[in-house]
Amino acid sequence: MGFFVKRALWAGLVAGLGLMPMTAGAVVLDCSLQPGADAMGWISKRVVIDYDEAAGTARAADEAIQGWNGGPIEAKVRKPSANQVSFTWDLTIPDAVQAARLQFRLTWLKADNGAVMAVKPLGYSNNFDARGSCKVK
């Protein structure tokens, strides 16, 4: 996918997240990740989370979600604390031979706005991870 196509997708994605209803306790986490070479493209370099702490709800978006789901996906809020909160979601990627189902977990480290992403392809023994940082908007 070309640079300008990716840029247009991201502009639409972030604009779409900006249109979601926000409450007083809600934040948008715009996370930049550095996936390792072994991540095989399963981890996007940018993940956006719309997190409503008061409601305990979240939505996630990245290049794969936009491509396969057409827009943000509901994420589960896991183990929120004063120090960190994790968000999890599943994504099924259809294939002509066999669909791939992936479990994603992004943990936001509040003290330094760090981010840790882990991806597990279900039915396989390997895992992928990345670290980075989030901008709170």
UniProtKB/TrEMBL annotation:
<protein>
    <submittedName>
        <fullName>Uncharacterized protein</fullName>
    </submittedName>
</protein>
<feature type="signal peptide">
    <location>
        <begin position="1"/>
        <end position="26"/>
    </location>
</feature>
<keyword id="KW-0732">Signal</keyword>
